[in-house]
Write a structure and sequence with these properties.
Elements (H helix, E strand, L loop, with lengths): L9 E4 L3 E7 L2 H6 L6 E4 L7 H8 L3 E5 L1 H13 L5 E8 L2 H12 L3 E7 L6 E7 L2 E7 L8 H5 L1 H9 L2 E5 L7 H13 L3 E5 L3 H6 L1 H7 L5 E5 H10 L7 H9 L11 E6 L2 E7 L2 E5 L15 H13 L5 H15 L15
Parallel strand pairs: 1-5, 1-9, 2-7, 3-8, 5-6, 9-10, 10-11, 11-12
Antiparallel strand pairs: 2-4, 7-8, 12-13, 13-14
Helix pairs in contact: 3-12, 12-13
Family: Belongs to the carbohydrate kinase PfkB family.
GO cellular component, one term: cytosol
GO biological process, one term: purine nucleobase metabolic process
Amino acid sequence: MASSDFDGIILGMGNPLLDVSAVVDQEFLDKYEIKLNNAILAEDKHLPMYDEMSKKFSVEYIAGGSTQNSIKVAQWMLQIPGATSFMGSIGKDKYGEAMKKDATAAGVNVHYYEDESIATGTCGVCVMGGERSLIANLSAANCYKVEHLKKPENWALVEKAKFYYIAGFFLTVSPESIQLVREHAAANNKVFTMNLSAPFICEFFKDVQEKCIPYMDYVFGNETEARTFSRVHGWETDDVEQIAIKISQLPKATGTYKRTTVITQGADPVVVAEDGKVKKYPVILLPKEKLVDTNGAGDAFVGGFLAQLVHGKTIEECVRAGCYASNVVIQRSGCTYPEKPAFN
């Protein structure tokens, strides 16, 4: 394929958030009732936490948001300018400007909806012992409107793309937008992919998630999310391999592609289910002292995976690229990476 064939080939939609990241202590986690290796939406009790983090700990501000992370990593792995596009909602403020600058510098074609009345969303990233917990204060990210997607210059990105990736987090914001994109993908034999994203999505947004499942050609998630999905659906199994098979066998809206389920398990092998069979792929093991934080590990995995998928590579190669990208990201703070990938 010529590089022009990759123009806007991947489109992501999600919640662009500025990560407010710090290594914290147990006392702080207890005070705000935060569990490691989890992701939640901020409640009122969490709102003072962002200020307290910046006063008490050494804080880094990193452009983030699950889908945007994955799209940036896919862009980095592809090394073809403009191969990826992203839509979501930010505020008209300095954080929003910083995010736009960061994503554009990464080579992503961003079409943000900009809300004048509300601040750019932030995500508290609490790190302890290399594990992370995410507390998202969506703010402007929560204000994405389907009208923005329908504008000709934005819908053109949907038309141009051949692969779509939307994290489950966006289900809480604009299910109407997701519906338009998934129906376009199905009608045009394009590849539609989503992520389970967090236990709370599987549990409390089950109905909107279920409407999307028939359209999903690839379902990503981690072991905790998969087990929550199983429990919520009354499957009575905690076996990740069985759950992955069951997800892959849920009904499909079209027969163009079979569904593939890809479940990461931290340092344990990646579980891939398709055609009623499971394959397991080992990850690149990292000595504990090299682990900085797991923030963005799952996002980076998806980015690496998608970058090979658009090249028509095998599942094995897609997983290998995903493992490479997440291995790079967990050795750095947040979802960041060196200038060029060393993946061959």
